[in-house]
Amino acid sequence: MGVVSLLQMQNNPLRALFPQLLSSHDHVYLDSAATSHKPSSVIERLRTFYATENANVHRSSHVQATKTTEQFESVRQQVQQFIGARSPSEIVWTKGATESINLVANGLTASHFKGKKNIVLSALEHHANLVPWQQLALRYELTLAIMPVDDSGILLLEPSLALINHDTAIVAMSHVSNALGNINPISPIIRKAKEVGALTLIDGAQAVSHLPVDVQALDCDFYVFSAHKMYGPTGLGVLFGKMPVLESLQPYQFGGEMIQQVEYHSATFQAPPYKFEAGTPNIAGVMGLGAALTFINLHRQQIHDTENELYLFLINALRQVSGVRLWGDSNRSVAVQSFTVQGLDIQDLSILLSEQNIAIRTGHHCTMPLMKRLGIAGTLRVSMACYNSIEDIQRFIDALNSAIAKLSYSNYPEIDKQQSSKSEAIDVLTFNSKTTSNENLKVLGQNVKAARGWDGVYRQIMLAGKDLVRLPDFMKTSEHEIVGCESQVWLRCELHDQNVRLQGDSPSKIVRGLLAIVFEVLNEQTPEYILSFDLSRYLHHLGLARHLSPSRGNGLSAVVAEVKKFCRTTQ
Question: Which of 45, 311, 388, 429 has the greatest number of C-beta atoms within 10 Å?
Fold first, then answer.
């Protein structure tokens, strides 16, 4: 990458079109696969609609309603042209890609499965493109066949094609993997499905903002995506369906607008797309999507070039970080890269990156079966868009190196024995209606509350983790795993001499420290005491709440809820 190119990237002119980036200079946003930021044109279009154009569509006959309906339907035509559909009638508005998939899965009837025995999915699928088909398979006694991936998460094409045969009813897969960024070889898979008479659904949620899409050239039966991942508003999705298959689907919801005729004991329905659009639609969202499509069309080449340069810079930089393992297909990818760091927990890294104002996604990315296949709990995912810069990537790499260095235990010598002596611990405070004086805190809580700044708090959390009474490996089973935690957590509760004894564990060093801090005030306490414990108040009193993301706080809440559930069974 040349010097001129680097300078162009650092002065990315598209960045100035996104107000949120202009108001948060210290924040590096690398989570666009979760949701993209919105350009000024989209924000202004939403404001204009509500300020000057607000009216319902397809109902009233007054002038404003007529104008709004015309604008609303013109965006349907924009979408048709954007993805190369034959007719605007093939474009159905939904709440998002998830609802689009559910609409299809719930609209299919027994007539679609005559003589068919299986549904073929890829191993890369988001839960939204897996669970609806699981439920459909149960309903019609079909089996699921899973297209395999290799040890890096790249789809194996030939074995995948071999799974598609005359027993196949549906083939559903993502155009681009949300977890890894792979661009999947959907064309040969669609062709094979057509040969055997199977329906095809492509999840394009991660593709449409990065790649040109032509549904006629692909020849898929359904293609779905969400507006909010392509610079548009939240709460709006698109279902493309070929007209014959749309006509064959049963309505997903019932109500106003989708009705043709209604009697007290019967009803008939409109033709697609209105057949599937019950109730008042997200009119403002549709207008905003129109502005987003205009933005993409206007800047498509610049978006493509910017994202390609950013991706090359990112993977080259990550390859120079010791211990990094890249997942997915870096030779065939959009501007998304998943990675892990050998010997370090992804949640620990995520917390330390967040404290340095780096926003990335961490976890299984709603692809739990895929992560199990790869033999990992999850990944750290960097996802970029046209508004990012080389400076963003460099700041992320610097923060990552800093986080890796901090997570070395050698930086944190064992806590002083006198400081950690349990015999010198002060009586714990019951965090309900009593005082919250510092004198009532135990040792770990005192150390956290006395710490100054994130570095000081982090040090005390890491040291606290050494005090955790951990579970042996053979007890780290699903029986003891806590559902609802962002990271893996195992918990064991038992009653000993009328008091509750706790053990816990997590791959995350930081989570182990947080568990130790909470367990310090709960361990060896009576069930009555624990049931009166207010976790939220306790974390705020220690000053920890401001350092915990909602998901992290919810994870601790899930642990305490499980402890309280155990306590109730002892009464």
Answer: 388
